[in-house]
Design a protein that fits this description.
Blueprint (H helix, E strand, L loop, with lengths): L2 H13 L4 E6 L5 E3 L2 E2 L6 H7 L7 E6 L5 E7 L4 H7 L4 H8 L4 E4 L3 H9 L4 E4 L4 H14 L12 E4 L1 H9 L3 H24 L6 H12 L4 E4 L4 E4 L20 E5 L2 E3 L2 E2 L3 E5 L6 H19 L7 H18 L7 H6 L40 E4 L2 E4 L13 E4 L2 E6 L2 E4 L8 H9 L2 H6 L9
Parallel strand pairs: 1-7, 5-6, 7-8
Antiparallel strand pairs: 1-4, 2-3, 4-5, 9-12, 10-11, 11-14, 12-13, 15-18, 16-17, 18-19
Helix pairs in contact: 5-6, 8-9, 8-13, 10-11
Bound molecules: manganese (II) ion.
Length: 451
């Protein structure tokens, strides 16, 4: 990525601030067991403004009332002994050459330098819920107090930074869209391979692992979130991640899994028959969900809201549940009671980006629903979940969970479905299930599974 794009992102943030100091900490390592850690995952906000992928770094931006800007970074210092264990560090000397900052210091100087950075500013912007940072901020401010001879402002007006960043992250730039398109391509390979591999007797974890392998092809970074590989009634558990059961003939398989590229997520769900052919009952219910997704997509245009899309999806699903005689009563009466929620309990979409549930607001400053605009990316994921033992549900449908999810980019010329190439129509899915997994793997740039 061009360094200039990080600078312009920082400048866009500073545009919404008259003067003040902004602190954005990166992520640290998290302990997994005794002296081992989970794989490192950078903080999304920090990544957005720096592109830097080391743990334990902090970006500090300063803007004066005259509009002068300084960009500082605190980071792990070079340490040959530690680097032998955990990998090369960039270090404070090199950092200003390659990162979108003016100056860099080792982390151990953070507490000492913070009071000086604060001097003269009235406003402080950071994530107020970050307690670790809050205690450092308080300490630095305290150290500035009580010096009667020196005259300077201190940043006693604290502002929550996350909503400001969330608004910026809402509209993706070209670099972000490129990463999300690449993630979508890897998701396509993964879901097609899953359709090819699935068969009665195959374990959910084999498919889970295959997805992880394929999501790490090319510049992929693996799954953007824990894959859901849910055979049969496991699909009724919305966040099923145990992924350890054998697939059964006659069941459906719901897979919610997406690749990550440059920390950007894709988020895709497909539901298909384990044995490769939809039964008539499966096909009927699948068409209901697919139809509701098509209705939802018809509402996606600049100026629409995610809530409108959700409402139209719920309405069409409620109509279908009434037609199928699962819900009994008038549409108006059942709509009033949110009766569909028993079978469709989740939302139809969420913002997507660096976070799979991207941390951007859904309401504007006036508490109005945000309207869709060019560059926004979100998911469209209607579903139906019909429990076992629910007397209202015909037995042929009991135990079925179906969700279909795509990633949508809003453009000037309409919605662009970034994940449209992943089989979704009944016929396409049955074709994809017939594919030979070896043929799919042999087309990869590094088909090491075959060698
Ligand atoms: Mn989703």
């Amino acid at each position: 990525m061009e360094e200039t794009s990080f600078i312009s992102r920082q400048d866009n943030l500073l545009k919404s601030i008259d003067e003040g100091i902004v602190i954005i900490p990166g992520a640290g390592l998290k302990q997994k067991s005794h002296d081992t850690e989970f794989p490192f995952r950078q903080n999304s906000d920090f990544k957005y403004f720096t592109g830097f992928n080391e743990p334990d770094a902090t970006l500090v931006l300063k803007k004066t009332i005259e509009g002068e800007v300084e960009r500082h970074l605190f980071l792990q210092e070079k340490n040959p002994e530690m680097e032998m264990w955990t990998g090369i560090r960039l270090g404070s000397e090199k950092a200003p050459e390659v990162l979108p900052i003016d100056s860099a210091y080792p982390n151990h100087e953070f507490t000492r330098r913070l009071p000086d950075l604060f001097k003269g500013h009235k406003n402080l912007y950071y994530n107020l819920f970050n307690h670790d940072l809050q205690s450092k901020v308080t300490k630095a401010l305290k150290s500035l107090g009580g010096k009667r001879k020196e005259k300077y402002f201190t940043p006693l007006h604290w502002h929550h930074l996350s909503p400001l960043i969330g608004m910026l992250r809402l509209r993706k730039d070209q670099n972000e869209i490129l990463a999300m398109k690449q993630a979508a391509e890897l998701s396509d390979i993964g879901h097609r391979a899953a359709m090819a591999l699935a068969a009665p007797g195959v374990n959910e974890k084999e498919i889970d692992q295959l997805l992880s392998y394929l999501f790490a092809q090319e510049n992929g970074e693996g799954p953007a979130y824990d894959s859901i590989v849910a055979g049969g009634t496991n699909a009724l558990i919305l966040h099923y991640i145990a992924n350890n059961q054998n697939l059964k003939d006659g069941d459906l398989l719901l897979i919610d899994a997406g690749a990550q590229v440059n920390t950007y997520a894709s988020d895709v769900t497909r539901t298909f028959p384990v044995n490769g052919v939809f039964s008539p009952a499966q096909k009927d219910l699948y068409q209901v969900v697919l139809n509701s997704q098509k209705v939802a997509m018809g509402h996606m245009k600049i100026g629409a809201t995610l809530k409108e899309i959700h409402t139209s999806t719920c309405q069409i699903l409620l109509k279908s549940l009434i037609e199928a005689d699962i819900l009994k009563g008038s549409f108006e009466e059942l709509w009033e009671k949110d009766a569909y929620r028993a079978y469709y309990p989740h939302g139809t979409g969420h913002w997507l980006g660096l976070d799979v549930h991207d941390q951007s607001p859904y309401l504007d400053n006036q508490l109005e629903e945000l309207t869709l605009d060019e560059g926004m990316v979100f998911t469209c994921e209607p579903g139906l979940y019909l429990p076992v033992g629910d007397a209202s549900v015909p037995s042929k449908w009991q135990g079925m969970g179906i969700r279909i999810e795509d990633d949508i980019l809003i453009t000037q010329s309409g919605p662009e479905n970034l994940t449209r190439s992943i089989p979704k129509e009944v016929k396409e899915i049955e074709e994809a299930c017939k594919e030979d997994i070896k043929t799919i793997l042999s087309k990869l740039s590094s088909p090491s599974l075959l060698s």
